Amino acid sequence: MTEQQQRIDELVRQILGESYLHLRVDRIYLEDDLSTGRCSLRCELHHAASGQPMIIAGEGVGFLDAFFHAVRDRLAVEYPSLDTLAILSFSLAADLSTRSKTFGADAVGEVRLDVRNSEGAVFSFGASSRSITASSAEACLRACEFFVNSERAYISIYRALLDARSRRRADLAERYVQQLGELVRSTSYTKVIEEIRRELEGPAKGGAADD
Fold this sequence. Notes:
Elements: H1 3-16, E1 23-33, E2 38-47, E3 53-60, H2 63-75, E4 86-95, E5 108-116, E6 122-129, H3 132-166, H4 170-183, H5 190-210
Helix pairs in contact: 1-3, 2-3, 3-4, 3-5
């Protein structure tokens, strides 16, 4: 994670607090049909904070494609920004110094993903473990969580800004505008903003006029 991503993530965590979405993978059931090139999976996850279980399923060309589709299909209904993401590249690198056997197949492997949002900005995510499958799932999940939480934080601050303007709290409004400026860099937000503006168009205009 770059320094800019780290700053954004810290801001998002500050805004969302305990409601920050963090999912953990428990089990993955995988079927990879090499004759057709199609991979299907079913995955059991849980919310790290609440322990609430979640099941996702999907298919694609290989594990990473199938997992990304499974996460997106499960979350994009509530968080439409996921529909605008694109994986630009991914890589796997093994740290053979961590191997316990001569052959080295048990070495820690790091999977890295480069993901582009709707604004054309590219963000990198990575995860390491002794399982290629686990590292791939974790890196993909981190990417999706980053954009989901950024979207949620943007919505939260946008609404707080409208409330601050309606109460003539210029000090709060200024701070919220600055935070929105930070979040807009990472949030793939076009559809969300359109929905928010339709929903809150009246209060937004009223708040702006009051200022």
